[in-house]
Amino acid sequence: MKGMCSCVIGRLFQVLLVLLVAGDVWAGALTFESAVVEIPVEPDKNEVSVRFLYENQTGGPVDVVEFRTGCGACLSVGPKRMVESGGKGHVDALFKVGSKSGAVEKSVTVVMADASGARSEQVLTLRAVVPELVVVSEKKLQWRVGEAGVTRSVEVTMDWESPIRVMAATSTRKNMEVRVVEVVAGQRYRIDVTPFELQGAQLGMIRIETDCPIEKYRKHVIFAQVTR
Q1: Which InterPro entries match (predicted)?
Q2: Which of 130, 152, 178 is a domain's end point?
Q3: Per-residue pLDDT for the chain (228 aa), expressed as one digit of tens each?
Q4: Which CATH number belongs to the domain containing residue 142 in this structure?
Q5: Do 173 and 203 belong to one domain?
Q6: Is residue 10 part of a domain?
Q7: Closest by alpha carbon to 55, among 79, 26, 91, 107?
Q8: Do residues 178 and 153 lie in contact, with contact meaning Cβ atoms separated by under 8 Å?
């Protein structure tokens, strides 16, 4: 009986070893050269394409079966294909960056299946660096009731090879006086905002308009808030 038990245990160990080896050979996913790609984007571009390179370093075929995106920013992605062991290829994706500037991240998830049907996933990320041609120092100015006559300011700085001018700045609130001060022509401006009557809490907007030839940098908004 003791010998029989040892034999059974030995067979189970062999089966388990085979399964582990098979799993090591067949399981896994494509190996991407880089899962995060950083690309500088021209100021006038609203879309950016990126290529993610990969290699199948497993012992069997890997099938690219699906692409998942979290939002509508990914306009297209592909291709779906079977990649044999040792094979190389790429995933091409086209992302929309729109009117955003600064560091913009977009991602897509690649779903893969090995020969056994086991699935794995890899998140691919585009890190787009969109120039900020017009930089507004503050997004919101705040006052308290009783601070009528107190001027608060924001700096507007241009970062481009050609001059960009602030053409106008206006308030959606009639009790907010707005003045544009030219510090360095085509490069630096100051927007002074002065409330002349503050009887209660309120929220308004200061609209800043520039003459930048690229539309997405032409208009900017900051908030003007009064609290009790």
Answers
A1: DUF1573 (IPR011467)
A2: 130
A3: 545 444 444 554 453 443 344 343 334 589 999 999 999 999 999 999 999 999 999 999 999 999 998 777 899 999 999 999 999 999 999 999 888 888 889 999 999 999 999 999 999 999 999 999 999 999 999 999 989 899 999 999 999 999 999 999 999 999 999 999 999 999 999 999 999 888 889 999 999 999 999 999 999 999 999 998
A4: 2.60.40.10
A5: yes
A6: no
A7: 91
A8: no
CA atoms within 13 A on the CB side of 45: 14
Give the burial string for 89-122 (b: 16+ CB within 10 Å, else e): eebebebebeebbeebebbbebbbbbbeeeeeeb
Whether residues 146 and 181 share a domain: the answer is: yes
Is the residue at 147 inside a domain? yes
For residues 179, 183, 186, 190, the Cα torsion angle rounded to the nearest 10 degrees is -40
155 falls within a domain: yes
What whole-number distance in Å separates Cα of residue 28 and Cα of residue 8?
31
Q: Which of 130, 165, 189 is the last residue of a domain?
A: 130
pTM: 0.72
Q: What single-letter DSSP state applies at residue 18?
A: H
Residues 153 and 182 occupy one common structural domain = yes
Are the beta carbons of 222 and 141 closer than 8 angstroms?
Answer: yes
Q: Is residue 169 part of a domain?
A: yes
For residue 141, the enclosing domain spans 134-227
